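User: Okay, second chain of the day. Same drill as before: sequence in, structure tokens out.
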Amino acid sequence: MSIRLSCSTCNTAFTLPEVPADRRALCPRCGEMFPVRAWQEESAAGSLPPSIPAAASTSVRRSPSRQMMLIPFVAGLIGLGVALWMARIHPPMPQPNPESPRPEGAVASAVELAGLRYLPADTNIAFAAQPGAILAYATRTNQDARELILKAGIPAKVLDSLTTLGLTLAQIDSLVGGTFVGDRAVEIRLTLVLTLRTPPTDEDDFLRRLKAKNQPGGKGHHDVEFAGFPFTLGRVSPTVWVFGFDSKKDMEAVERGGYVAGGRQLAGGLQDMLSQQVPADAAAWIATNNERWAEKPGVKLLLETETLLKKPEWLPTLAKGRAGMASLSFGDTPRIRLFVKASNAANGQQARNYFAERAATDAKIQHGGEGEAAFFEAPIDPATAFATLQKFLGDTTKK
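Assistant: Same drill. Structure tokens below.
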């Protein structure tokens, strides 16, 4: 006997096979996690039984502030009044299949990714990849998708770990990640949000492959091993799984049931990067908050340690900047976009001069900016994307 629920935020109706054990459900339309306080039972044929449980008549009050936050995603550029008028005279649109967030190969903008809701509020570096767009490009160009991804700089260990879990790239809608790099002590932080297009074929087998062990406390979390590292795993829904390196700090958003859509819990500088600088069609991107990165102990350790990056010459370059973004888009012509916010206008002009030099030999390159900002966008072979970023950092250390 399945149950029919109604989202307390956007009022979308949808069906689940049973009442969730934690009595919380994820809306397939707006992505909000809400407590299950009322439902209707459905027969196997999908029809309502003659009598509906009294709980079904219970009304759930929606938070006005949360509704206001969701207006841009529900109504777009239409005013609230127009949206309400349209709702009265038109029948509701068909609801999307929760197991297929968007058409195969389509890309969601950075702020539309559901995984952002489960990044901790103190995240100051965020990144994401949407394999569907990469697979579609590989198919169009008769390339091997795995080889293309490896050449672009994604570690083979990550791909192998996904394969070990019984997942294919086509099954993954997005992988969203975030970390926090502090100004004082060095600490290892990492949150990964895996959103699937379809649930694992066998969830028990999926957990076995992760070597999952139940954590004490009854929160439904597991100790797992992913890519050779220990993580805490939180199951948000059959298609949303959150991995946290720090079982408390990196799982903070999961503990509270997720934040509102759009990553609004993140720092303002990082929010601006995601909403204003990451291209809407970017299939892979990384963005930072506005901070003094060269002064952070964790960054110094990463660049100065022999067994890590061993690029101490990059520190003076990082000292000239405050924030950055890099993205890859896989349209008919793949493009790379770089955005830099420098520490002052003079350093911003220096970055623009460098971009202008690169653009002098190719009319297809776009560049510009003003004040502290500089951007560069150009066609690129995805297999050389990582090397291009390394060259950019290497060139700027010589200036």
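The longest strand covers residues 229-237.

User: Thanks, on to the next one.
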